[in-house]
Design goal:
The structure is a single chain. The chain is of the alpha/beta class and about 280 residues long. It has a single domain, classed as Restriction Endonuclease, CATH 3.40.91. Helices cover about 45% and strands about 10% of the residues. The protein is built from 9 helices and 7 strands. It has a 5-stranded mixed β-sheet with strand order 3-4-5-6-7, with helices on both faces. A two-stranded antiparallel ribbon has the order 1-2. The chain is globular. One of its GO terms (molecular function) is endonuclease activity.
Length: about 280
């Protein structure tokens, strides 16, 4: 399958899903294989097809490839464990607002907040989507029905993984969105700030819903970060307080990011999901 496309300006580009399927031959790597090394090998094969491919184009492809590897691993983990939650990929916020996963009442409260912020202060509540949403396992099994482990994958498999979230639009109660996960192939300083800001904002929205609904002693929303390599400075940089939790003396400070995982193999991914998904 040809995975090289041509842009309107006549430049060669990577068709990411076709490249992922073709270069891996529709098979997941071994559990112990380094994902960083795997991407280097895939880059080398692409460079044989496009000599002048930019590092930026390759890095952009790495992001999607990494998410697909993790999404398939999370799916298989869910299928193999009866008592765990499910992590699903989310699209860019320009295509979908994550608050729409909540039921009509809760999503209306979030939209009401957006409108009141704009009306009273002339500022916007601007949010981004985390890479994964963690859905309550009981709800996920109820909605998805029969489930099978993904052993080999196709382009259609990747398309399904990208759109499973649609099955949960308007279906989640307050406690059925368990948490979120941000995924990066690497942590740059600016990415660390983005992740902390995103985690803080998601938890602030959760607390807003808790307040509006008078929910006493909720389980809390979890927020995680994942990368192929995590250093000491990354962990320090992500140890940031969630802003809303320090605005009153009646609440204990909360972390914007609850845990950071280094995932450079599928085996490490399985270990991380064992903790994130509640096994």
């Amino acid at each position: 399958m040809n995975y090289i496309g041509i842009t309107p300006k006549g430049r060669s580009t990577i068709i990411k899903d076709q490249a992922f399927f073709t270069l891996l031959d529709g098979r997941l790597p071994n559990d112990s294989d380094s994902i960083i090394d795997l991407f280097k090998q895939m880059d080398s094969q692409i460079r044989q097809q496009i000599e002048k491919i930019t590092s930026g184009a390759l890095s952009n492809a790495h992001g999607d490839w990494y998410e697909w590897l993790l999404a398939i691993t999370a799916w298989n983990f869910f299928v193999n464990h009866d008592n765990c939650h499910l992590a699903l990929l989310l699209p860019n916020v320009n295509r979908f607002k994550v608050g729409m996963l909540y039921n009509e009442e809760l999503s209306s409260l979030i939209e009401d907040l957006r409108q009141k912020v704009l009306k009273t202060s002339q500022v916007r509540l601007v949010t981004s989507n985390p890479d994964f949403v963690i859905i309550n396992g009981e709800l996920a099994r109820q909605i998805l029905g029969h489930r099978e482990v993904i052993q080999n994958f196709t382009i259609d498999t990747l398309a399904a993984i990208n759109t499973y979230y649609k099955m949960f639009i308007g279906k989640c109660n307050f406690d059925q969105i368990v948490g979120f996960t941000s995924v990066k192939t690497s942590f740059r300083p600016d990415r660390r700030l983005q992740i902390s800001h995103e985690g803080s904002l998601m938890k602030a929205l959760y607390t807003h819903l808790q307040t509006r609904k008078w929910i006493i002693d909720p389980a809390g929303l979890r927020y995680y970060a994942v990368a192929t390599k995590v250093g000491t400075e990354d962990r320090k940089g992500l140890k940031t307080v969630a802003t809303h939790s320090i605005t009153t003396v009646s609440s204990l400070p909360q972390a914007a990011v609850d845990e950071v995982y280094e995932v450079n193999t599928l085996q490490q991914a399985q270990g991380a999901f064992a903790q994130m998904l509640g096994v």
